[in-house]
From TrEMBL:
It comes from the Bacteria. One of its GO terms (molecular function) is monooxygenase activity. Coiled coil: none annotated. The keyword Transmembrane helix applies. The chain crosses the membrane at residues 26-46, 67-90, 126-144, 172-195, 247-266. PANTHER family: MEMBRANE PROTEIN, MEMBRANE PROTEIN-RELATED. It comes from Streptococcus oralis subsp. tigurinus. InterPro entries: DUF975. It holds the Pfam family DUF975. This is Beta-carotene 15,15'-monooxygenase. Keywords: Membrane, Monooxygenase, Oxidoreductase, Transmembrane, Transmembrane helix.
Length: 285
């Protein structure tokens, strides 16, 4: 079945026009931008020491999870803030007289909205986590192989002038190679599995924002609706992200500081894509 294409050029044009007409929109994304900057400075793997190699697998796994706990919490909270900003933006699109302020991104923390927001976004995270397991295992193997290499080099000051015929060197090369190539395979396969699911659930936040004032909607239903909406449009959304790649790169080289202006632009592109997607699905039944 062929699905009518969304004009991505029009999406970007609408976004620029919308932001030009609403200069106070940057206030809505102020708090999410700060959290994005904060999360960019969090490097959980840097907290792990080489001594973890001497521990059991489960002890090492526990340390990895502990190192990632705070960054995961920050990331999840920033997702709620960003969804709150999307909620305010969608309201502005429906009612141009909507007041915009820094507090607008806190809208989903209100008592009547928070539980549904929390459960829906948590369920989305859980589903995506399941799809990302192969990739995460690959990252773990890569990290482990890196630690193995660092410890081996530390124990052999003569590196790289090694006796390749020694049993110890052969054992190291075999172990390192096994973990390293396994990590590459797992990350490649993992991303092939994960990326389509990432885009399948990419409309969850916007659907959540549109349904919050309509009463309680089951989180699973919102996720199913997102998958339905994105059927036939995942590649187009991927292309949109490719077109926004220079902005992502600019944000990266500025250590997230540029997110104060870039984040609203990227998010609003996604919102206008969502609205165009919704219109096409309604038109085509």
């Amino acid at each position: 079945m062929k699905y009518p294409k969304i004009d991505l050029k029009t999406i970007r044009l609408q976004t620029r026009q919308f932001q030009a007409e609403n200069p106070r929109l940057f206030l809505v994304y102020l708090l999410p931008s700060i959290l994005v900057i904060l999360s960019g400075f969090l490097n959980p793997l840097a907290r792990l020491q080489e001594s973890v190699l001497e521990q059991s697998f489960f002890s090492m796994l526990a340390q990895v999870l502990q190192a990632y706990l705070f960054p995961l919490v920050v990331s999840f909270v920033s997702t709620i803030f960003l969804a709150g900003a999307a909620f305010a933006t969608l309201r502005l699109l429906k009612d141009p007289d909507t007041e915009l302020s820094v507090k607008s991104s806190l809208a989903l923390f209100a008592e009547e909205r928070f539980s549904q927001t929390f459960l829906t976004l948590l369920l989305k995270r859980f589903y995506l986590f399941l799809w990302s397991i192969p990739n995460l295992v690959g990252v773990y193997f890569l990290f482990y192989s890196n630690l193995l290499a660092r410890r081996f080099v530390a124990l052999h000051p003569e590196f790289p002038k090694l006796d390749l015929s020694s049993v110890e060197t052969k054992q190291f090369l075999m172990t390192f190679g096994l973990y390293f190539f396994a990590s590459l395979i797992l990350m490649i396969v993992g991303n092939i599995l994960y990326i389509p699911q990432h885009y399948a659930y990419s409309q969850v936040e916007f659907l959540l924002c549109d349904t919050l004032d309509l009463g309680q909607v089951k989180p699973r239903q919102i996720l199913k609706t997102s998958r339905f909406l994105m059927k036939g449009y995942k590649f187009q959304r991927f292309v949109l992200d490719l077109q926004l790649l220079p902005w992502y790169f600019l944000n990266w080289i500025t250590f997230g500081i540029a997110s104060f202006s870039i984040l609203p632009y990227i998010q609003n592109n996604h919102i206008f894509f969502y609205r165009a997607l919704l219109a096409r699905k309604r038109r085509n039944g």
